[in-house]
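Go through this fold for my students:
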Amino acid sequence: MDVASPAGRYAEIERRIQAACDRAGRSRASVRLVGASKRQPLEALAAAYAFGLRSFGENRVQEAVAKAPLLPPDIEWHLLGPLQSNKVRKAVALFHVVHAIDRPAIAFELDQEAARQGRSLSGLIEVNLGAEESKHGFAVEDLAADLQMLAPLAVLEHLKIGGLMAIPPPGDSAEDSRPHFRRLARLRDALAERPEWRARDFAGELSMGMSDDFEVAIEEGATHVRIGSALFGERPA
């Protein structure tokens, strides 16, 4: 099979995910492949769907809202980018998982809007592992304290916090991401040990790893990998 073709790229990504799972002693079912389809044409998404992909991730609410009605209804939509308050209503109506909850206020807004729409929503807390000014997310050193306000059972009734998400600082190779992935896993483990998060059935999910480093992420415990160019090809300019 031509690995440069859409079918070949999908098969190659699946092969690499399986190999990484095998190295880590994990089942393939423990890793969700999310196709990062930002700025990709509908034809590319439809082709990936035909090959078996069911989870697609968009960075912008308005782009997903435009694409979703033109694609099969059983797609699970993931919001990968930061969310502005004025887009919360549309986001709750479409997305199943919000990967980049970067402040308590947006978590409260998502929960309240989900209640109004009669929906349940999953969310992941974005952590700014490298303290980069260009990135959103909770600071590592403040994470436990900042999340305390989200932990009580009566606070978030329609938004389920499933785990953590991060984009590591840029590196020269995939291995440069490994210590950051390990750090995110340790932060997840620390939260999972806290009684207030155990009471919330904290799943301990880890959304980490993209086209350049997803195999390392899987080896370090990723439950969601967000793959764009390696799956769809380069984005149109």
In short: The domain at 6-227 is CATH 3.20.20.10 (TIM Barrel). DSSP finds ten helices and nine strands in the chain.
